[in-house]
Design goal:
Order of helices and strands of chain C: HHHHHHHHH
Number of helices of chain C: 9
Structural class of chain A: mainly alpha
Helix content of chain A: over 70%
Strand content of chain C: under 5%
Bound molecules: protoporphyrin IX containing FE, adenosine-5'-triphosphate, magnesium ion
Number of strands of chain A: 0
Oligomer: heteropentamer
Largest sheet of chain A: none
Number of domains of chain C: 1
Chains: A mainly alpha (244), B alpha/beta (211), C mainly alpha (229)
Largest interface: C-D, 42 and 47 residues
Radius of gyration of chain A: 20 Å
Number of strands of chain C: 0
Shape of chain C: elongated
């Protein structure tokens, strides 16, 4: 098997260039999709028969909640690649994911809280999904805290990679246990989100938004990756050529 | 034939390319004294060889075998004495030595006693290490080193804190070890009093340092 | 000198024995988590309500949170001292599999904190109005749960080795990971108090412990190696 | 070289400024007590129940346990590092009154943990179902209480330096010393939640704080001096 | 006239009567080199004089004044360099030196810079101390010592970890300090290269140690 593609994939200048080329290809569709989804969601979709207009916050809330989990997966995979194949670029990818993921988590929490006030009359309820999402935020913050706490870059990469992997083993367990916890207590679960029969004109913008957010994440991640590579390689000779 | 050969050693610390393609060979029964100004990378070199620091690249051959990173057999053959002597202050010298050596090989308590006598630590071997002076601790660390029976010794400033007699002790331990066909790499500015055919000098940093 | 290499088992045993012996020399370290456990648990009757009926309802949560925090408090010292005096370096250099040595250290931590906490729990349970019949069930749950907590903690402690003032960060890393243990453990305790069957949560607690035993020492060893560089 | 001796005030200020600067060097560490506080708070609903109505009843205990723990975790490291790298020795040798320097270190600790925790409490209170009107009362109580906790902690940390020298018993005393703070603090918080007058416990908390401010730096200085010998 | 005079010094460590009625005098401009085998009490002696260890009994006279224990004026006049150099690893050398000196006297940042240049630490003065080698740290500690302007220096193995140039640096710092009328007590086995009229030797432990 020919592994050269793999090693080229690991070379910072190569990735730096690819990332630069790809960014617009993600950024533009992301912008368009998000704009279209907003129009579809805020204008075209009919108000919910139960929740009225307030439900429209869903179009930001749900996709960011999904993305938050997905990005953790991407981050942990990149970290694992970095650890196993000693690929520095993969560590840089993981590092660039963390901040974006934490932001999406925070956005889902905040939009959820804002939504909760009119719906439940309180900003916070110990609902399983909310709780699991909060724990996810802590996992992100722990990851970022560990990175920030270690001064040597190589060590920070490897240690945080171990943490990310341990975390990814735990996320399903945490989600399961939190569901289980809540089902025991049968809290007044106000959050009735399982509605398979969502009408198409409500669902379509949601899916568009999800795709848009995903592309947006890819674009932001690439931009951050380029910055990260520049920071790491600032003494390398190819940087001078690139920046010239 | 050279017992230990290092080729193409590159190490970065922070962003600085500290060791650039360093290579050297050490035959059996020989001591390589590593010298160089402060901050040139002596400690770094020893830690890399002890497997404590991951180099950018390294081709290491020991007794004719290519050594991959984290090779247990290689490690079983080496002993590292760094700045921190790995002594538990609540244990006595004897307890510390038996633990540190016991981690590597079976050791009888008489052997521990005789090692402590050898390094001049017998007088205080029943006191907890916290009540020992800096030089006394150093001697206890030397006892562990001597007792492991490893053939490659990596010593980082072994004579620190030692009095004149202690410095002589270090030199004689090294000489004895070399006579047994052992190998020593020592980062020290002290004169080890070895005959010229047993001692080579590696000066690092003249070129290798960028800062 | 004849050199019979120490087997991995013997080396791990040596580490375990050493940690226990060190703890016995310094009883303060042994007692501190217990005192913390007691203070936190007893704070609730003092601050909340003296009514045993109400206290019984919060007993599982309080016992488990207190145990979790006490176990974590003791964690920091697990690796810090060994890192500072060069012992961990010697572990790496010794050529013994680090995984085995880490497993031994984790076991020592459990024997020195998890086990005493478990044994102390009935006493505190009584203060919270827990009926005596519930004690065996609580003991089993805590026993299983604290093992997993020690394992998670060892990974966290290894990861924060290179971090100065890592105490707070350590708890930040480990507490979210310990959530499942807390949930299942508290539930098992609740069921024990209610006199119902604990099979479900105990089963889950055991599963977590097994998962931890398989994976945590590996992760801890990797973390320590990284931390020493 | 002209040598204008540094005044005691200037020296204390220097110590304070240094500790704050060290913390700012690692901004992540500034946020950590806050996240930590949130994580500990999260544990109680998970261990107990998700119902806000019930959680409100244990909220005082939860907030105070979290404050105690954060104080303890952060403090030990504050002194240990200075002891290990010889800074405390230089404090003693400098000829500056050790009491002033210890007071500065304690203040730095409070600014870095107690104060942020206090400011964070309202947010966590909401998550535990505490009504907004209770917040000012809770803030005042936590402010007073965390000061005393920092002061007690400083003595404890000083003592742990000399643990070997038979300070074993004393180091165990500091946790019980914190108990009155916890009791009065939790009581004040409870009254604030119930909307009743907090005068009594707040008065007692202030008395404890004043007592702490007068005695703790002296005790901490003495403890450090003994610990270094 | 002797600037520093010690009489009737008794120190116990653990249960051992380590220093028994030690007495000596040091005139201004003189260095007292404290020698003795490992564990005889050199560090103990220096720590007692620095006020870090409480002796059983001590009659201390400095500049003709009887010094009571914990006298701030006496402390303002002395500087102690022990095994741990009191450096914060997150701070740069310059920050560390300004803090350590600033605790005792007001200091301008140019003075700090020139002190770092004097000890050969200028090259790495902007790096955090955690990224320095053992010898580099030692140099930073010497910069603090030099800058405090205290007249009595108590040095415990000041040349540890230093390379040959660094050992020369210590000797020249001491010589300069003596020439300014300062006083030095140094526990070291190194030859400080001082003229005989500037250097006295105190050998301890010959009799004083019981173990
Ligand atoms: C802080 C508050 C909230 C948080 C953290 C939160 C969290 C989440 C998460 C994690 C998801 C993804 C669900 C999954 O796939 O498992 C989600 C989806 C969703 N949330 Fe929330 N949520 C919050 C508040 C709310 C509120 C107040 C409502 C409305 C009553 C709501 C309605 C929904 C809906 C309709 C979905 C998408 C449908 C689905 O996935 O089933 N959420 N939320
Ligand atoms: N904390 C202690 N408790 C009891 N005895 C101690 C303690 N610290 C040191 N000692 C003993 O006091 C004696 C003197 O110790 P000190 O450190 O002063 O020696 P030193 O002359 O500086 O030796 P070195 O050359 O090794 O540094 C030693 O014999 C030591 O064992
Ligand atoms: N953690 C680190 N990060 C970045 N640079 C470092 C780190 N540790 C050491 N260095 C730098 O690496 C260089 C080599 O350090 P090393 O400790 O190997 O020197 P050394 O030759 O042992 O010096 P000494 O004689 O002072 O002990 C030094 O210039 C030092 O500043
Ligand atoms: Mg070195
Ligand atoms: Mg000494």
């Amino acid at each position: 098997m020919n592994w050269t593609w793999f090693h080229r994939l690991g070379s910072p200048p190569h990735i730096y260039r690819i990332a630069g080329t790809l960014t617009p290809w993600f950024a533009w569709p992301a912008g368009l999709l998000i704009a279209a989804a907003l129009y579809g969601g805020l204008v075209l979709a009919p108000p919910d028969y139960q929740q009225g207009e307030g439900f429209r916050i869903l179009y930001v809330h749900a996709p960011s909640a999904w993305l938050a989990v997905m990005i953790y997966g991407v981050m942990a995979s990149a970290a694992a690649v970095g650890l196993i194949w000693r690929m520095k670029v993969a560590h840089a990818v993981a590092a660039s994911c963390a901040g974006v993921g934490a932001w999406f988590t925070a956005v889902s929490l905040l939009t959820g809280m804002l939504w909760g006030k009119p719906m439940w009359g309180t900003y916070w309820v110990w609902d399983p999904r909310l709780t699991a999402q909060l724990i996810l935020l802590f996992l992100y913050l722990g990851y970022m805290g560990l990175r920030a706490g270690i001064d040597d870059l190589g060590r920070a990469d490897k240690a945080s990679a171990v943490l990310a992997i341990v975390g990814v083993v735990n996320i399903p367990i945490i989600r399961y246990s939190v569901e289980w916890w809540n089902s025991i207590h049968q809290a007044p679960s106000v959050m009735k989100m399982d509605r398979p029969s969502m009408p198409f004109d409500m669902l379509a913008p949601l899916l568009m938004m999800l795709l848009g957010f995903t592309l947006y994440f890819a674009a932001v991640m690439l931009v951050r990756l380029r910055a990260e590579i520049l920071r790491r390689e600032r003494t390398a000779s190819w940087i001078r050529e690139v920046l010239r | 034939m050279s017992e230990l050969s290092v080729k193409n050693l590159h190490v970065f610390r922070g962003e600085r390319h500290l060791l650039r393609g360093l290579g050297f060979e050490v035959p059996a029964g020989c001591c390589l004294q590593v010298v160089g100004a402060n901050g040139t990378g002596k400690t770094t070199l020893l830690r890399v060889l002890a497997g404590l620091l991951e180099p950018e690249s390294l081709e290491l051959t020991f007794r004719g075998q290519r050594i991959p990173p984290r090779d247990p057999d290689y490690h079983a053959n080496l002993s590292y004495l760094g700045h921190d002597p790995a002594l538990k202050s609540d244990f006595t010298s004897a307890e510390n030595v038996s633990f540190n050596v016991g981690l590597r090989r079976r050791v009888a308590s008489e052997d521990v006693q005789s090692a402590l006598i050898r390094v001049g630590a017998a007088k205080f071997s029943d006191r907890p290490v916290r009540a020992l002076s800096a030089g006394q601790r150093r001697r206890v660390a030397l006892a562990s080193l001597w007792l492991t029976g490893a053939s490659l010794w990596l010593l980082d400033e072994p004579a620190t804190n030692l009095d004149v007699a202690g410095q002589g002790l270090v030199a004689s331990l090294i000489q004895e070890h070399l006579a047994d066909g052992g190998l020593v790499m020592a980062a020290t500015h002290q004169d080890l009093g070895l005959p010229p055919n047993q001692c080579a000098t590696l000066e690092i940093g003249a070129r290798g340092v960028s800062a | 000198m004849t050199a019979i290499r120490t087997s991995t088992i013997a080396a791990a045993w040596l580490v375990l024995e050493r940690d226990l012996r060190l703890a016995v020399r310094r009883p303060a370290q042994l007692i501190q988590p217990l005192v913390f456990f007691a203070v936190v648990t007893l704070l609730f009757p003092l601050g909340y309500t003296p009514e045993l009926g109400k206290l019984r309802a919060i007993a599982p949560g309080v016992l488990w949170v207190a145990a979790l925090l006490a176990s974590m408090l003791a964690l920091e010292s697990l690796f810090r001292e060994d890192a500072a005096d060069g012992t961990l370096e010697q572990f790496v250099v010794s050529g013994q599999p680090l995984v085995g040595l880490m497993a031994a250290k984790t076991l020592a931590h459990w024997l020195l904190t998890g086990l005493p906490l478990t044994l102390m729990a009935p006493l505190l349970g009584i203060a919270l109005g827990v009926p005596v019949v519930a004690m065996p069930g609580i003991l089993v749950a805590l026993m299983l749960g604290t093992i997993t907590l020690s394992l998670i903690g060892a990974v966290g402690a290894g990861l924060t080795l290179g971090v100065r003032r890592g105490g707070v960060l350590l708890s930040l890393l480990t507490l979210p990971l310990a959530v499942p243990v807390l949930i299942f453990g508290a539930r098992a305790t609740e069921l024990a108090i209610l006199g119902e069957s604990q099979i479900g949560p105990l089963y889950l607690l055991s599963a977590l412990a097994v998962l931890g035993i398989t994976l945590a020492p590996l992760a801890a060893a990797a973390a320590v190696r990284i931390g020493l560089e």
